[in-house]
Structure to design on (227 residues):
């Protein structure tokens, strides 16, 4: 079955620390990949997306993600986090044989000032 | 605001009530979706409408009934719900009918079933 896995439920970092959140999916075919962020009390916002081309994708607010096809991974990174990055982060995948977007369970990021 | 508007923002209903959630988008998008967001669980896709036709019903209980009268509006009719149906219900839309360009989400309706 096609699925999306986020390995970390809750990550706690201090400001200026580097961030990497893992995302893996199970499917050997073509995919579109997304990271969404949900700040407390707010709607899901798109951080970045990958369709094709350069596997290193740059998004908003200094985030980037790298698609590694051989590892079925699309990890999210940020070199230096800020307190305002405290939020829940969701990895999402559209599998090309489906008409819908599947989400991981989310990773809650807490950044301590 | 994202361009996808959901009302009401909060809803408390009894198990014997009938209520409806509304979603509206004026982005010119061609597909609309209902998701359920429960604590510590992945977002669960409930329904997909593409070009106003239902294309997927993800084994959702019949106490949830969607309606898409036109490309800008999507409803979720609720009746005889259970306490475990309490969750945040999210509506989303996408430009392409297959949604492969990504979705725009509304702020959700926080539903509590008592």
């Amino acid at each position: 079955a096609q699925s999306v896995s986020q390995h970390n439920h809750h990550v706690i970092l201090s400001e200026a620390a580097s961030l990497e959140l893992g995302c893996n999916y199970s499917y050997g075919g073509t995919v579109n990949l997304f990271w969404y962020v949900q700040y407390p009390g707010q709607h899901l916002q798109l951080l970045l997306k990958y369709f094709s081309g350069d596997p290193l994708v740059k998004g908003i607010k200094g985030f980037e993600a790298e698609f590694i096809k051989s590892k079925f991974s699309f990890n999210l990174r940020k070199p230096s986090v800020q307190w305002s990055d405290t939020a829940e982060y969701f990895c999402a995948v559209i599998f090309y044989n489906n008409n819908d977007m599947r989400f991981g369970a989310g990773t809650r990021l807490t950044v301590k000032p | 605001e994202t361009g996808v508007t959901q009302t009401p923002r909060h809803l408390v209903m009894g198990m014997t009530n009938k209520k409806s959630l509304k979603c509206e988008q004026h982005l010119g998008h061609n597909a609309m979706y209902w998701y359920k967001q429960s604590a510590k669980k992945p977002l669960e896709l409930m329904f997909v409408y593409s070009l106003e036709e239902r294309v997927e019903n993800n084994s959702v209980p019949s106490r949830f009934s969607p309606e898409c009268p036109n490309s800008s509006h999507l409803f979720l009719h609720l009746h005889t719900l259970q306490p475990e149906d309490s969750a945040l219900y999210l509506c989303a839309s996408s430009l392409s009918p297959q949604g492969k360009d990504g979705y725009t989400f509304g702020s959700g309706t926080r539903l509590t079933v008592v």
